[in-house]
Amino acid sequence: MNLDGLNDFSIEVPSWAYGNSGTRFKVFTTKGVPRNPYEKISDAAEVNRLTGLAPRVSLHIPWDLVDDWSDLRRHAEENGVTIGAVNSNLFQEDDYRLGSLCNPDPAVRRKAVDHHLQCLDVMRQTGSTDIKVWLPDGLNYPGQDSLRGRQERLAESLRAIYDALDPDQRMLLEYKLFEPAFYSMDIPDWGTSLLHCLALGEQATVVLDTGHHAPSTNIEFIVMQLLRQNRLGAFDFNSRFYADDDLIVGSADPFQLFRIMSEIVAAGAHRPESKVNFMLDQCHNIEEKIPGQIRSVLNVEQALAKALLIDQEALAVAQRDGDVLGANAILMDAYETDVRTALADRREERGLPRDPVAAFLASGYAQKAATDRAGGTQASWGA
Ligand code: AOS
Ligand code: ZN
Ligand code: ZN
After folding, report:
1. Which of 179, 227, 233, 280 could pair with 267 in a Cys bridge, judged by C-beta atoms 3.0 to 4.6 Å apart?
2. What gap in Å lies between CA 13 and CA 345, rounded to an integer?
3. Angle at 81 between CA 353 and CA 351, to 5 degrees
4. What range does the record give for the signal peptide (predicted)?
């Protein structure tokens, strides 16, 4: 089984996955949950240490604010990880009731742009190269504001941020069908995100969050189309049972994850040169967080491994010959191959545990964190 395509493949984990999280009904707390960005990075480093797959951690500003960014960077690097994408936050200030980058008030738009300039500074100090913009802006009622006017304001605000990028920095622009706005989001779909990216320039790319689509959307088609344009900058991986649930990637539909990774492999986009940032955007509300993250990165690895097994030459022949069932069978053969032993063998060869979740549970890390992290305030999504 040739799984060489997994060499150099990596997944980025989000700092907020290690804090407490929940729904608007209840946030359950867990002993040993990090109290600050340093402890979140330590937990993320543990995921990398056990899987060898997760060498970067996304930050969220202001949730992860620290006094000394170079010191946080040093802490990350000492623990074998680097700082990944920096996420801006446009959804927690009273000023943003009517939107942020699209707000009718120019002073609010300026404030939102300035926040991104602050994020760019954080990137310069931490070695991060990606700023991720998820826009919560939108309308709840028809007529509430001008749909078109908001796009013009958005273009202008994004331009101000884009023009402040250094040559090695990228903007990752995320779309979302609904929530927090329910009538119309200002970046509801990949087309809108792509149009803005194309207008901005080559350093602007689309983020595809797998939870952000209508039911039955063919996500792998979107992946393929964005790759054709060289504008798939990143994934936010998670599941989608009913809507944007931020649960473990591959739990709702592992076959969909395989189909997505098949398009990635077909385009060679699993290789680092493609610059697609395979990020997780998840929260672990009732399950243990570090094992939840380990399971997540292993799910992505497993889907990629299966996609790598697709016999591309045979598939091309079957497709050219119009062999409908034959072509489909080639894809399904790869999907139905059990790669678990091969992946465990691969881990062992690299000095990693065969079963990273079991290794974590046996390591005593969680018990030690629960003791060491008594006192203080635990981090949570949104704070
Ligand atoms: C929100 O639904 C989005 O998925 C964003 O990526 C968001 O920034 C992330 O969930 C962390 O707040
Ligand atoms: Zn997301
Ligand atoms: Zn989301």
Report:
1. 227
2. 24
3. 20
4. none
Q: Model confidence over 49-80: pLDDT tens digits? A: 999 999 999 999 999 999 999 999 999 999 99
23 C-alpha to ligand 3 centroid (Å): 13
Ligand nearest to the CA of 211: 3
Candidates 341, 340, 309, 314; CA nearest to 327 is 314
Please give the distance, rounded to the nearest whole angstrom, from the Cα atom of residue 53 to the centre of ligand 2: 20
C-alpha–C-alpha distance, residues 224 and 24, integer Å = 35
How far, in Å, is the centroid of ligand 3 from the Cα of 178?
9
CATH number given to 7-304: 3.20.20.150
Dihedral angle, C-alpha 382, 247, 281, 148, nearest 10 °: -80
Can you point out the beta strands (E) in the chain?
Answer: 12-14, 56-60, 82-87, 130-134, 138-139, 170-174, 184-185, 204-209, 232-237, 277-280
Q: In this structure, what are the phi and psi dihedrals at residue 189, rounded to the nearest 5 degrees?
A: -150, 170
Number of neighbours of residue 350 by Cβ within 10 angstroms:
9
Pairing of strands 184-185, 170-174: unpaired
Residues, the chain, total?
Answer: 383
Reply yes or no on whether the pLDDT at 380 is more than 90.
no
